């Protein structure tokens, strides 16, 4: 039994939330150490073109309210994808809506996870697709509108992260020395052209290059605790990554700093400012484990969905959709409302 098995459900939710915002805060630190003269300010981009050039965006929007005497409610859409050069690189297989609230000094949070295989109608179209393909088809605004339609919650901010950024930066610093707690044997790791590959990694100290480290933080199907184990590995690698980057010599390793900045700039899209990332991280650290709730909109645990095989284009795909009927999200909205209350 590993340490995570001993944790309660509340403690595990706390670990997931801290891991998520630890990742964002480390990106903030890496961005912070880049010389200010190299940082350019870009205006907000509202185009729906999925081929938009992705950059870290600074917008003239109010900083998250840190005052304890004023209510705060923020819904942040967090999307994760493999990135360019990987199978399904444009598919947002991680879709997480993070709700953070603060009132009378009481801070709370909720994590709402949506399944990547949810069948949805493409906005302003009669065509149907899995929700993980909407970002590539209709852009971030189209996806945000669909998330709002499904959940009944407004999407105030968003973050899109390519996991490829982890591989690139680890390669730039010549790998990481990682302690692997238990043997990993995943025969279902995604391969090229929608195939599977076997990923094996023995327990103990292992020196991981970028590609291996990326597999290490993405594998999940054979882990005892599934996504919780994966989040723990992600937090472990991010902390090691932060330590090694901050240990670089600002003078002799200056070219490496530039390459790290370029990689971050290519692989992150958000309308959160650097200061807002920092503020969110500070708020999250102060939220007690008993103040973090979670809801997984799925077929197995909540029984909100049903599923089957449907034709999508020239292929037959496995999908899920509301039991109440396709595009009928009333029960899902009620479920989320109870979580937030």
Automatic annotation (TrEMBL):
Family label: Belongs to the LytR/CpsA/Psr (LCP) family.
Taxonomic superkingdom: Bacteria
InterPro entries tied to this protein: LytR/CpsA/Psr_CW_biosynth, LytR_CpsA_psr
Lineage of producing organism: Bacteria, Candidatus Portnoyibacteriota
Residue ranges occupied by any Cell envelope-related transcriptional attenuator domain in the UniProt entry: 92-245
Name of the molecule in the record: Cell envelope-related transcriptional attenuator domain-containing protein
A Pfam family hit: LytR_cpsA_psr
Organism: Candidatus Portnoybacteria bacterium CG_4_10_14_0_2_um_filter_43_36
């Amino acid at each position: 039994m590993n340490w995570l098995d001993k944790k309660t459900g509340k403690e595990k939710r706390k670990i997931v939330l801290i891991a998520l915002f630890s990742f964002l805060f480390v990106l903030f630190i890496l961005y912070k150490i880049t010389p200010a003269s190299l940082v350019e300010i870009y205006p907000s981009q509202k185009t729906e073109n999925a081929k938009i050039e992705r950059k870290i965006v600074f917008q003239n929007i109010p900083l998250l309210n840190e005052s304890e005497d004023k209510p705060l409610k923020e819904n942040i859409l967090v999307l994760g994808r493999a990135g360019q050069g990987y199978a399904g690189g444009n598919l947002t297989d991680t879709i997480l809506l993070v709700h953070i609230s603060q009132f009378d000094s009481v801070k709370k949070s909720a994590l709402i996870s949506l399944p990547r295989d949810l069948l949805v109608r493409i906005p302003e179209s009669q065509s149907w697709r899995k929700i993980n393909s909407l970002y590539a088809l209709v852009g971030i605004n189209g996806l945000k509108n669909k998330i709002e339609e499904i959940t009944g919650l407004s999407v105030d901010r968003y973050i899109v992260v390519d996991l490829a950024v982890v591989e690139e930066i680890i390669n730039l610093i010549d790998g990481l020395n990682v302690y692997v707690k238990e043997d990993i044997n995943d025969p279902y790791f995604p391969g090229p052209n929608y195939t599977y590959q076997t990923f094996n990694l023995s327990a103990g100290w292992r020196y991981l290059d970028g590609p291996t480290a990326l597999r290490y933080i993405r594998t999940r199907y054979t882990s005892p605790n599934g996504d919780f184990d994966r989040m723990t590995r992600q937090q472990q690698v991010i902390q090691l990554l932060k330590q090694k980057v901050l240990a670089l010599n600002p003078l002799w390793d200056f070219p490496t700093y530039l390459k790290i900045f370029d990689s971050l700039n290519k692989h992150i899209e958000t309308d959160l400012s650097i200061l807002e990332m920092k503020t969110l991280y500070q708020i999250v650290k102060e939220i007690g484990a008993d103040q973090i709730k979670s809801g997984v909109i799925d077929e197995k645990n909540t029984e909100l969905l049903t599923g089957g095989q449907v034709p999508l284009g020239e292929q037959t795909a496995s999908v899920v959709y509301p039991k109440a009927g396709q595009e009928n999200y009333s029960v899902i909205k009620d479920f989320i409302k109870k979580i937030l209350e």
